[in-house]
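Many introductory courses stop at the sequence. We go one step further.
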Amino acid sequence: MGRRATKPAVTPSEPVVGSWELPEGWEWQRLDDAAPINPRRPLDDLADDDEITFVPMASVEAESGRIDVSTTRPAKLVRQGFTRFAPGDVIFAKITPCMENGKIAVVPEIPHGLGCGSTEFHVLAARTVLPKYLYYWVSQRSFRETAEFNMAGTAGQKRVPSAFMRESVIPVPPITTQERIVARIDELFAELDDAGEAMARAGEDLGVWRKTLMKAAVTGELTANWRANNPMIETGADLLARILIDRRTDSKNARKTYKEPLPPRESLIGLPDHWAVATLEQLTSKIVDGTHHTPTYVDDGVPFLSVKDIRQGVLFFDSCRHISLEEHNTLSKRCRPEKGDLLVTKSGTIGRTAVIATDQPFSLFVSVALLKPASDEISGDWLEFAFHYWFRTADVAQDVKGTAIKNLHLEDFREIIVPLPPKEEQEAIMAEFKSLGSQSPADDIEEVGSSCELLRQSILAAAFRGDLV
C-alpha cells in the first residue's frame, strides 16, 4: 500500500462527509471545485418558440436515479425563475422531504443541450469527476443525512443551503479509477436489483399464501381435522345467544337504554353447520372513532395516534404526536382505547389494524376506529381476523366513501357480517393460523429487503474508500 492522502484541515463549522485517509493518487476536493454548484446556463441562443426539456420534481424518482425528460416547454416560458441544467449535470433535490427521499439524477442527453426544471433542485456540473461517480457520492445516505442536519428554513420548507453543497468535500481519484469504481458499483447494484425482483415475486406469492390460508381458516377448512377429534360442546349460535343475553343483562343492571344490535341481513355460505354469522355490531360493545377536532399538541404528554402510527399490526408511539393529560381525559369520555380493543384505520389508508397490547393510555384521531369486544368470549384477535377476511373478500370499494380522502363510516363497520365459530374452535383456528403463518417467508422477505439497502450503502462506502479497485 502506498502513501495515503489525509483529508485537509477543516474549520469547525465546515460540514464534514468522510474523514478517512485516501489511497495514493486520490485527493479531497471541495464539491464546488469538483462540480461547480448551480452554474449559470444562459438561454440566449434559443428562440422563444424552441421547445426545451422541463423537469418538475415529480419527474425524478426517489432513490433510483431515474429521470423523465419527456416534458418540454417553450423557451419563452422558462427564461425566468427556473433551474437550468445541461447533460451530465447532477440535479439534487434540496427541499424536504424530497432530499431525504433521494430525488437525485444525472441529466441525460436532451434537445438543445439545455433544460430547465424546478427551482428546488441544486445543480452540480461535474468537472473533475464523472457524472455517475458524482451521483453515487451525493446519493449516499451519509451525505444526505449530513445535508439534512445542515438544512435551513422553517418546518416543512427546509432546504439544503448552497453553502453546504459548495463547502462539502468529495474524494477524487484519477478518471480511470473513477471509471472502474462506477462500473463495479453498477455491476453490484444490478445483482441487488435482481435480488429485489426475486423478493417482490416472493412477496406476491406470500400474499396469495395468506389469502388462501385466511379463506381456509374463516370457512372452517383449516380446523376440519380438529372438529373430527373434538366433540362439539356448543355451537356458534349458542355463543352468539349468550353474548346477546349478557349484553341485555348488563344494560339492565346499569339502567341503560338498550338498543338491540343490528343482526345480519344475509348469511354466509359454505360454513360448518355449527357455526353462526353475526355483525360486528353484535360482537362489539362500542364502535367509535377518535376526535373529529384537531387537538392542541404539546411536546411531552399523552400519545395521540393517527393512521401513520398503525403499521403491520403494531402501534408506533415513537413517531406520534402528544396532547395534554387534561385534553386526553376529555377525549376519553367518548373514546377510551384499552388493552384488547381492535383499532382499524378508516380514512386515507383504510384497513390497517392492530389489537391493543399495552396498558399505555393514548387518544385517537378521527381517522381511526375503535372496536371494543362485547364479551371476554370474543377476542380482539378474532375481530381483527374476521375484519381482514371481509376487507379482502368483500367489494370494499362500494363501502368506501369520499372523494379526496376515502372513508369507511362507522355504520359500515356495524353492518359487516363475519363468521362466528364456537369459542374453542376460534382458539384452535387462531393457533393453527399462527403456526402455518409462521412458516411463510414474511420475515425472510423483510430481512432481505433491509439487507439489500444496507448492502447498497456498504458498497458505496467501500467504493469511496478505494476498496473496490
